[in-house]
Amino acid sequence: MLETKDLTIRFGGHVAVNAVSCAFAPGTLTAIVGPNGAGKTTYFNLISGQLKATSGTVSLDGRLLSGLSPSARTHAGLGRAFQLTNLFPNLTVLENVRLAVQATRGGAHRRGLNLWSIWSDHKALSARADEILDRVKLKAREHDTVASLPHGDQRKLEVALLIALEPKVFMFDEPTAGMNAAEAPVILDLVRELKKDKTKTILLVEHKMDVVRELADRIIVLHNGTLVADGEPAEVIASPVVQEAYLGVAKEAA
Question: How would you list the strands of the sheet with 201-205, edge to edge?
Answer without folding.
Answer: 78-80, 169-173, 201-205, 29-33, 218-223, 226-231
